[in-house]
Each structure stands twice: as structure tokens, then as C-alpha cells.
Specification:
With 97 residues, the protein is mainly alpha-helical. The protein is built from 4 helices and 2 strands. A two-stranded antiparallel sheet has the order 1-2. A hairpin with a 2-residue loop joins β1 and β2. The longest helix is centred in the middle third of the chain and has 19 residues. It is elongated, with a radius of gyration of 23 Å.
Length: 97
């Protein structure tokens, strides 16, 4: 299906060169999906870790549950090599103490 530009309300069909360029842009976007999903995943993981940083202060004794939780978060990206695995991952239940 041909694509068009809209220039001042006039539809102008893409040239063959523009079609090729657009196809390459769309493919590059699709190819970057995993990296985008993993970036969002890591941001969430990092935020969860940051919420528990207080427990690692030198004047606190970290509970075993907190140690386990934080380790699970740090290990969360292991084995995530597809978009489907990233989307299916369930973060561990938050520990508050």
C-alpha cells in the first residue's frame, strides 16, 4: 500500500526512495523493541531497589527477607533475552522490613 505525505493539505505519494527509507525506519524501530522493553524493566527494578536502599545503611541490620528481596531484584534481568520473557516477568513481592 503506498504511503503519502500531507503537504499543505495535498496528498503526495512517497517516492520509491522515500518508501525504502521509511521501511528501514520502521524495521529499526521494530528491531529496537527488546532494548526499549528492557530499559523500562531496568528502570522499574532500579526504582524498587532505591526504595529499599535505606535498609542497607550502616546503622541498620538488614533482615534476611530484605537481603533475599534485594538479591532477587538484582538478579531479575538474568535470562531475559526476549520481549516475551521481559513482559512475563513478575517482580518479587515488596519487603518493607
Amino acid at each position: 500500500m503506498p504511503r503519502f505525505h500531507n503537504v499543505n493539505g495535498v496528498r503526495i505519494q512517497f517516492t520509491a526512495k522515500e518508501e525504502t527509507a521509511r521501511d528501514l525506519e520502521e524495521q529499526a524501530w521494530k528491531d529496537g523493541l527488546f532494548d526499549r522493553k528492557l530499559k523500562i524493566f531496568r528502570e522499574k527494578r532500579n526504582n524498587l531497589l532505591a526504595k529499599t536502599d535505606w535498609s542497607a545503611l550502616s546503622d541498620n541490620t538488614m533482615s534476611d527477607a530484605m537481603k533475599t528481596y534485594r538479591q532477587q531484584l538484582r538478579d531479575a534481568t538474568e535470562g531475559l533475552d526476549t520481549v516475551e520473557k521481559v513482559q512475563a516477568y513478575e517482580f518479587p513481592t515488596e519487603v518493607t522490613k
